[in-house]
Design brief:
The protein is of the alpha/beta class. The longest helix is centred in the middle third of the chain and has 19 residues. The chain is globular, with a radius of gyration of 28 Å.
Length: 530
């Protein structure tokens, strides 16, 4: 029998295919949307439903009343916003977004439009978690003192979000649900082993106002799968192990004080009986019920915001090498970001820097003080930018680019980080670094081929294509770039004759030393705030 809610599942890959299966079993599947023709063909044939590669077509289809998004996390905010604007009830796989302000915007948008917004916090629908919540609320475990969770596996490795954002949302959501409160402070440590800019392992510590503490250990570099949550209460301890036959077990161990010393008194384990149910089936059914009856879901947008606030604080701590971060505490921004620009959590920006219209600074990027980024600039993870750097409009700094202090990048300058790119072949392991030394100028529309160094105070002419290292103070032009002279640190072309040069503008003197040029005296440092 057809369900009154008609759903399009967007994304039919590793996890999306499970949503498709469950929604189809509930009689609510109207359409599958996926850009991969093989995935689309397999799912539509199996479930005998329509298919499309166009998300825009899904939004325009009036027969589709709800969408379920199982797309990469960095697309969640944009696609959910568009779905809500199109009048669709919307289910979003975790995390709801990658920024708390974006999650709040989605929650407010859904409320204003009277749409159902639900987040895929799957464990909230697990029979073991539901029963554990009942036991805690009834006082069966006593005062909760400590929780820890391990979510470990070998893969799936991601090239977008790190392990914290990929695995930990489940555990953060469960802990907040069990305790009924948010942590006040967090700290996080991690390790990047497969990619220089993406954490593969993290350990996060959470502190709650009630006195409870928790830690979350997540890794996709683990020899075996382990999904385990331990809750230590004053009266009993509970273990939820999703990989075990007995999913929820209580340990009524006691601690007795003998001669003023704690002595553990072990007790037999008690298996908690649970009703057999597939959590994903319950989650999908709950979304359909909420959409049909126009009521808020258990894991609504507000819960999504709470979880992301914690993840955002953990990400900030990770970027600050484990510093303790207050949850929800707005950092004092001593830099400017235009409202149309995006700065991801985990990016580091120095005082006095300005990020202008429609620019994007990704997590893991490091930008110094007093920099200026023009409109439509992009700074990728792993990029390091020094102080007082000027980046003009339409410039993308790719992973591997390092700009030292006082570098000038002209409009529409192009950097590369792979020598022989192919769209169909991933070459992330072949990135080559590019170093631009202090005071260098890179002209408009120039191209800097990766793997080279631009010397101190060098000058690359407009439209030049740099295919080799450029010496300090060298002036290069053309395609491929060739040296045609020398430049002073002040930006004026030098007259060099018989191995010596002088600047008519600032009177600086230079001497040629073989193929290189060096000043007789080091140029003064840039004045603060220039």
């Amino acid at each position: 029998m057809a369900h009154p809610v008609r759903v399009a599942v967007v994304g039919g890959g590793h996890w999306g295919k499970n949503l498709v299966r469950n929604v189809a079993a509930l009689g609510a599947l109207e359409c599958v949307c996926d850009s991969d023709p093989d995935i689309l063909s397999a799912l539509t044939e199996k479930h005998q439903v329509r298919g499309t590669a166009s998300f825009a077509q899904v939004l325009q289809d009036s027969t589709i009343t709800a969408v379920m998004l199982a797309t990469p996390a960095e697309r969640h905010y944009r696609m959910a916003r568009e779905a809500l604007a199109a009048g669709k009830d919307t289910f979003v796989e975790k995390p709801l977004a990658l920024r708390a302000d974006e999650a709040r915007a989605l929650s407010a948008q859904a409320d204003a439009a009277g749409r159902v917004l639900m987040v895929g916090h799957l464990l909230a629908y697990h029979p073991a978690v539901r029963r554990l919540k009942e036991l805690i609320d009834a006082g069966e475990l006593g005062q909760i003192r400590y929780l820890y969770s391990n979510r470990l596996n070998l893969g799936r490795f991601r090239s977008e979000e790190n392990i914290l954002w990929s695995f930990a949302p489940h555990d953060v959501a469960v802990m907040l649900r069990l305790l009924g409160e948010e942590p006040t402070r967090v700290s996080a440590h991690g390790g990047n082993y497969l990619h220089t800019d993406i954490a593969d392992v993290t350990v996060s510590t959470l502190q709650f106002a009630s006195g409870a503490k928790a830690h979350i250990f997540v890794s996709w570099l683990h020899p075996f799968k382990e999904h385990k949550l331990v809750v230590v209460g004053a009266a009993q301890m509970a273990v939820f192990d999703d990989t075990a036959a007995d999913k929820l077990v209580l340990f009524p161990h006691r601690i007795e004080w003998v001669h003023r010393r704690p002595v553990p008194q072990a007790a037999d384990r008690v298996v908690v009986p649970l009703e057999p149910a597939e959590p994903l089936a319950a989650e999908c059914a709950h979304f359909l019920t909420c959409a049909a009856e126009r009521r808020p879901p258990s894991t609504d947008g507000a819960e999504g915001v709470r979880v992301i606030r914690v993840l955002e604080a953990c990400q900030e701590s990770l970027a600050r090498q484990g510093a303790v971060v207050a949850v929800g505490e707005a950092p004092t921004a001593d830099y400017f970001v235009d409202p149309t620009a995006t700065v991801d959590p985990g990016a580091m920006i120095g005082a006095g820097t300005k990020i202008w219209h429609y620019s994007h600074v990704l997590a893991g990027a490091v930008i110094g003080a007093r920099c200026n980024f023009g409109q439509n600039t992009v700074v990728m993870a792993g990029v390091h930018v020094g102080n007082n750097v000027k980046v003009q409009n339409n410039v993308s700094l790719f992973t591997g680019v390092v700009l030292e202090d006082d570098v000038f990048c002209g409009p529409s300058l192009t950097f590369t980080n792979v020598i022989n790119p192919r769209s169909a072949i991933s070459r992330r392991d072949e990135y080559r670094p590019t170093l631009v030394r202090t005071g260098a100028t890179l002209g408009a529309n120039a191209t800097i081929v990766c793997g080279h160094t631009i010397g101190r105070h060098a000058f690359v002419g407009a439209g030049a294509v740099v295919t080799h290292d450029v010496a300090d103070y060298a002036l290069v032009v053309g395609n491929p770039a060739r040296q045609v002279g020398w430049m002073c640190a002040c930006g004026v072309r030098l007259h060099v004759e018989h191995g010596r040069g002088s600047c008519h503008a600032c009177a600086a003197a230079y001497v040629q030393d073989g193929p290189a040029l060096r000043p007789l005296e080091e140029p003064p440092a840039s004045p603060p705030g220039r």
